[in-house]
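Quick note —
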Amino acid sequence: MSIDAMRRDYGGTTLLEADVDPNPTIQFRTWFRQACDGEIYEPNAMTLATVGRDGKPDSRIVLLKGIDDRGLTFFTNLTSTKAHDIAVNPHVSLTFYWDRLHRQVRITGDASLLPRDESEAYFHTRPRGSQLGAWVSAQSRIISDRSELETAYANAEESFTDKEIPLPDHWGGYLVTPSLFEFWQGRTSRLHDRLRYRLSDDLWLIERLAP
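Predicted structure written out below.
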């Protein structure tokens, strides 16, 4: 099939102002639970978009690891490209796409480092292999070949034999404090529903956008 002929029609579900919660965090949690129940492979996968010192946008998939009244959290290597971007420009965008539900959520806000004790608490819940991986990967840097990574992993595994693996100084979490949510529900004939929550004077305003 030609790419320009690829399309699907959506339908069966609505997104109306009368049906959503006035708090976008609560509304997000509702949709997230439904995504978890909806056979989505990784419902917590989200596209994180950043802009660095050069003014050029960059994006990648990361995993949501928490949401509370403060905002949304994720964890990463603090020497990575995304971390360098956030250091010079904390404004970020998150996008979730749950294809089986014909839904998308866009969130914009500011990213800030989580306190180290929160990062440490999460780090120790990770599988041991992931903890070792955090120690050995100089994320985003050029390496000679895969054997360099595998050798570093084997050395770390030996170093931490029968020991608790500590949180590396170069690894931690970010909190994204949202200022905007947009909920998108696919509808038939491309007349999709789009509801935007916009923060204004500490109040969330709900606005309908044309598709």
